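3.2 Worked example (two chains)
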Amino acid sequence: MTPEIDAAMGRALELAAAAVEWGDTPIGAVVLGPDGAVLAEAANEREKRGDPTAHAEVLALRAAAQVFGDGWRLTGATLVVTLEPCTMCAGASVLARVARVVYGADDPKAGAAGSLWDVVRDRRLNHRPEVTAGVRAEESATLLRAFFRAQRGL
């Protein structure tokens, strides 16, 4: 793991923790440019915005597309996210042409980077980003477990 990836995951974890303040599932995402510089970052805002598509990954990819590339292609970019992307977010990563997806905790219930589905490696699609799983996974999983325990009053 490079220092840039570690720092980006640290920031994504901070963003994830902040999402709890407005009642969202603690997921954070950071998009790095090909040079490792931060292009954009976001936390989950589904509850905050009342928008089912306001996942951290989608928000970060949208913001990165505004400052990098040709308006939507994020060629050479890396998406760093605390939880394995769902089908929507994995699809958005493929469509945005990111080079790499780096995530923390696996999501056996909804993950689409190998756990339940494997959208990012589907050979029928015209782009397949490199995937690195398990980066600071326990920190990500701890945030998620604490959030869902609190939601259930445990």
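3.2.1 Second chain
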Amino acid sequence: MAAVAFEVVPVDKPDDTNVVIGQAHFIKTVEDLHEALVGVGSQIEFGVGFCEASGARLVRRSGNDEELVDLAAETALAIGAGHSFVILLRGGFPVNVLNPVKLVPEVCTVFCATANAVDVLVAVTDRGRGVVGVVDGAPPVGVETDDDVADRHALLRELGYKLGPV
């Protein structure tokens, strides 16, 4: 039986930046993700990093914001798991891009889509590295009260995600 070790890779990103991490296949992924993100709207700034698992085994990169492209590529390289991808974005929320990303034919799974601090759990074997999962944010401190429910409802309406009075 092959040995396995685990690594925790923190995602180092600016506070105003959201991250989507997933797994896909095929070199075409980086361009298809770029096209999916552009299709969401011109206000979104983004960078994509995609780890090839064979051939040249490079981190492929694309995007419309140089800082986010560089940071997404660096993050993908740090994770270093074959066929994983990292999307960093500003000017939109993960909820705005999640379905278009999941509809990219090469995308197999999405591990997270969040503004929170994230640690990526990576398994390391003799064959390579693979994303096992993510730690997304901090644990809960309790269950919402009726006042918290009212605050949640108001916030969703203020952001324009739900109809009705605030």
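3.3 Remarks
Residues 18 and 43 are 14 Å apart (CA to CA).
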